[in-house]
Design brief:
Blueprint (H helix, E strand, L loop, with lengths): L15 H51 L4 H30 L7 H8 L2 H39 L10 E6 L2 E11 L2 E5 L7 E4 L3 E7 L4
Antiparallel strand pairs: 1-2, 1-5, 2-3, 3-4
Keywords: Membrane, Transmembrane, Transmembrane helix
Length: 217
């Protein structure tokens, strides 16, 4: 035959310090959700301004900053800046979700079945919200690294090599001249030949052949 369980009284009742701890924790639990939401609101305001500022800078200066780069460097800068913007927006979205609150309706029965009390439910929601803010902080930290990397890359990226100038090779009489074309008027062709102080003037009537070449050999 099983004996009936009889709870026993503790040796002493809660002290004043124990009661103060209990009341302090109850107050902390009651305010945790509102404090977390205020923190999310602060982060949301800052992130909104940050994303707006960075987006405007990238849109306005992006093409000017990358137009003179090689294709490889332009692709790298695009990935860095674009990835940074995407992560910053994701961080903002995360904070907005935290600030928006509970995504679906709940009932008292559901809260009691899962959390036992409304206070425990609020603490759980506040904990989830704090986790969301930490995830947003990590996303923004990575976004900042990518954006800074993209900006630094625009400072140090080498300019794309200029297209090689076209040289004109002219066969005239028994000579051949090659250089940059300066003018062709009044029946004369003027070439800027490397090593010559004055342009070489060739009468058009003496030209036997001419061709555009990439370099004068």
């Amino acid at each position: 035959m099983t004996s009936e369980y009889r709870p026993t009284l503790p040796e002493r009742g809660p002290s004043a310090a124990d009661l103060a701890e209990r009341d302090a924790f109850a107050k902390l639990a009651a305010e945790s959700l509102s404090v977390t939401r205020k923190s999310a609101e602060t982060w949301r305001t800052g992130l909104s301004a940050f994303v707006t500022l960075v987006t405007a800078g990238v849109v306005v200066k992006g093409r000017d900053s990358t137009s003179a780069m090689t294709t490889e460097w332009r692709l790298a800068v695009t990935l860095l800046l674009g990835g940074g913007l995407i992560l910053a927006v994701l961080g903002l979205w995360q904070v907005l979700g935290v600030q928006a609150g509970i995504p679906k309706s709940v009932t008292l029965e559901t809260i009691r079945a899962r959390f036992a009390s409304v206070a425990a439910f609020e603490v759980s929601i506040a904990s989830d919200a704090a986790d969301g803010i930490r995830r947003a902080q990590k996303l923004v930290a990575v976004a900042l690294c990518l954006l800074i990397g993209g900006v630094v890359a625009t400072w140090w990226a080498p300019a794309a090599p200029a297209r090689p100038p076209a040289y004109l090779k002219v066969e005239h009489g028994s000579s051949t001249s090659c250089g940059e074309l300066q003018s062709a008027d009044d029946g004369q062709i003027r070439l800027k030949v490397s090593g010559a102080g004055a342009p070489v003037v060739i009468p058009a009537a003496s030209v036997a052949n001419m061709a555009v070449v990439a370099a004068c050999s």
